[in-house]
Amino acid sequence: MQPATVLVLDFGAQYAQLIARRVREAQVFSEIIPSDTPVADIVARKPAALILSGGPSSVYAEGAPSVDPELFNVGIPVLGLCYGFQAMARALGGEVAPDGTREYGRTELTVSAEAGRLHQGLPGRHPVWMSHGDSVVRAPEGFTVTASSERAAVAAFEDLDRRLAGVQYHPEVGHSPHGQEVLRRFLRDVAGVSPSWTTASIIEDTVDAVRAQVGDGHAICALSGGVDSAVAAALVQRAIGDRLTCVFVDHGLLRTGEREQVERDFVAATGARLHTVDAADRFLGALAGVTEPEQKRKIIGREFIRVFENATAEVARAEHVGFLVQGTLYPDVVESGGGTGTATIKSHHNVGGLPDDIEFALVEPLRTLFKDEVRRVGAELGLPETIVGRQPFPGPGLGIRIIGEVTAGRLETLRAADAIAREELTSAGLDKAIWQCPVVLLADVRSVGVQGDGRSYGHPVVLRPVSSEDAMTADWTRLPYDVLERISTRITNEVAEVNRVVLDVTSKPPGTIEWE
Ligand code: XMP
């Protein structure tokens, strides 16, 4: 069953995803759609409410998106935020002054005597986050002005008869401390939507949807060891049981313990049917003599597809596999322009020995979810913390963390150093504080050291602890010196080939997270 849905009309602000997440935190399902979606299409989706996001600084700017006034006549509750508030005011006959009354950043909001449903009982003056050039100087007919700020006489309004409301500020950001409460009140007290979207309901709805899609068919899923593929597979397994085959390609570029996590912990938690392919020698052979990072990536990608297709062909000999499970997440869907998710893909049948007629329909059970929601679903499905809490790890694995040629010996060295760093970070309780901490082996660099009684001529490893929200930008994490010291001492004592540990203190940009 489709849960009650709030649609966020994206006017081009960076805040649309944040708004959707805040609505979901209020336990109401929410999706983002382009602001120029025709009203008829919006109505056809039967949304429980609409939220108009922020956008360009002025409704008078050239090419600024507008709102079809018809949107307010179809009986759907609407909340306008920032630009959406002004666009709403204009569309309904209010007045927006292009007078350069700018307010940016933390601003004091004054709640009116008639505070309305959104601001009733909140402190009479409280901080909110503003970001606007123009301001609404006259509310449309039928609206009550419920708050103001120093430079915006109309900073919030409501028309409860028509279930329309708006605020000039950004309730979705953390700098508006009462913002989440205001959103919750809009959903509950203005739009009448009850909070019913929970982790349990997500699982139930997704399992139903997968059953409906796959019917009595068979599906296959490549596990990477990461969160997304594990949770996607666990959901599909719950829906269709043994008609799902999971394939795990061990390319020999994994970290210590990762294969066991998949083979032992994932299988124990889900009961999924797992087929492991031991392909380490094949990957090492293909990578022999290669030092250029892009070439390494290409080789690893190519070999992965070949091995996966061979495995699929094997499974397909026993049963007709019509579906391929993928762990696509909602931000990828939004960023690639939405779509309905009914794509089919043809396999690369010239490389893997698959029959020509194999065509998979994609099953994407995480298509509507953000990462933190995926983790919660995984935990509720009983996946262990080592899987659902796993930090990001690149698909090409340690292959891109050895600077120079990848060999079995170098992998062993890097694996040992990496395991020590991870162990110490975990026991210092720092896993949640960092985004990830690649350990990089500078295999082509040697330096002189003194270890024990003698001179050594070993390799450095680089610690790259980073803090980030989304990996697009990152800062280097200020790890406590005593933790760095323990990691350094242990690595240089316990890993024979390594005689120096260095710390990367570069932010991204200009550095990337991985070295390659
Ligand atoms: P960079 O190095 O571009 O990394 O700053 C950003 C984030 O992406 C991860 N990463 C990958 N993840 N396949 C993946 O699944 C890849 O090929 C890949 N390369 C980089 C990286 O670990 C970081 O979190």
From TrEMBL:
Pathway: Purine metabolism; GMP biosynthesis; GMP from XMP (L-Gln route): step 1/1. Pfam families: GATase, GMP_synt_C. Its EC number is 6.3.5.2. Signal peptide: none annotated. InterPro entries: Class_I_gatase-like, GATASE, GMP_synth_C, GMP_synth_GATase, GMP_synthase, GMPS_ATP_PPase_dom, Rossmann-like_a/b/a_fold. ATP binds at residues 224-230. Keywords: ATP-binding, Glutamine amidotransferase, GMP biosynthesis, Ligase, Nucleotide-binding, Purine biosynthesis. The keyword Ubl conjugation does not apply. It catalyses: XMP + L-glutamine + ATP + H2O = GMP + L-glutamate + AMP + diphosphate + 2 H(+). Residues 197-390 form the GMPS ATP-PPase domain. It comes from the Bacteria. The active site is at residues 82, 170, 172. Catalyzes the synthesis of GMP from XMP. Homodimer. This is GMP synthase [glutamine-hydrolyzing]. The lineage of its organism: Bacteria, Bacillati, Actinomycetota, Actinomycetes, Pseudonocardiales.
